[in-house]
Amino acid sequence: MKTNKSIIGHCSTPSNKNKSAGDLLSEVTDERTIGKNAVTGPPVSGGGTAENFAQKLARGFDQSVAQSIQETISRGLEENLKKRKEQKQPPKKDFTDAHNLKPLRERLVLAGIEEICQYGVRNFSVRRIARKCSVSCAAPYKHFKDKQAFYAAIIEYIQQLWRDRQEQVIVQNGPNIRKQLVAVSLEYISFLVENPHFRSIIMMKEDHFDPGYKEIKSHISDRSRELIQQYCHQVNMPEKTALVKMYIVRSLIYGASLMFDNGELPYTPEIFRLVEQVIDREFDLP
């Protein structure tokens, strides 16, 4: 798909320098904007509609460019919805069937991910997982001493997949820290969109988890936080401002991934490039 250069070129123009990405997109992840005020499309948990997103992204541009941005997103959304209607519903992903050649411990973890997403933590059943993996009810306990250890293994598995992918992106983008952190942010959006089961677990409330699990889970964004802190220190940005940047970038990542996954925002190179421009531009703002 060809990129709309007239839009992208304006994303970093002086006329936009006084507009924060927080102003443009923070409301995308604000639950107060969901539901009854949405004009088009179903409400999305963690965001508004694609039209809401387009309006916020376009705010601060001159009228002609703002209109182009909104038309680009609307056109992409229409194409996306049309494709969804034309395509048959894909079969439900079966993790154990897809990975039945993997070691038993990994098969148990993958089945555990599906179990949590389907039944929740409260109804997590090791017996069901064992049956799905065609092993005895006692077999999982040879790998995990209890359910809390099982939960920890699941989040550690997700973290390791993300760490490997993240380090590849960092290496590919050379020594420029700002380039690294923008690329990592975009890669994390792709990681969450491509693995909705992982996202569900990462964003799950922790009421039923012990402190050890919460500690493990808190480390999934360590590298991203480190990159933001390094860049902010490099440009002598105040610590308080650096914390705000971290919050805004995380909001953009989770808001965009939710809207891409729900179809409210077209998952196209053109729209992805606009999200990249907004994340990058945030570090030019005070």
Description:
- The protein has 286 residues and is mainly alpha-helical.
- The chain has 2 domains: 5-86, no CATH class; 95-282, Orthogonal Bundle (Tetracycline Repressor, domain 2).
- The chain is built from 14 helices and no strands.
- The protein starts with a helix and ends with a helix.
Total number of helices: 14
Helix content: 55-70%
**Helices and strands, in N-to-C order?**
HHHHHHHHHHHHHH
Shape assignment: globular
Alpha-beta classification: mainly alpha
Sequence-ordered SSE layout with sheet pairings:
Layout: H1 5-8, H2 21-25, H3 50-58, H4 63-86, H5 95-98, H6 104-119, H7 126-132, H8 147-172, H9 177-194, H10 196-202, H11 211-217, H12 222-234, H13 239-262, H14 269-282
What's the short version?
The protein is mainly α and 286 residues long. The chain has 14 helices and no strands.
Short descriptors:
mainly alpha, 2 domains, about 290 residues, Tetracycline Repressor, domain 2, disordered N terminus, globular
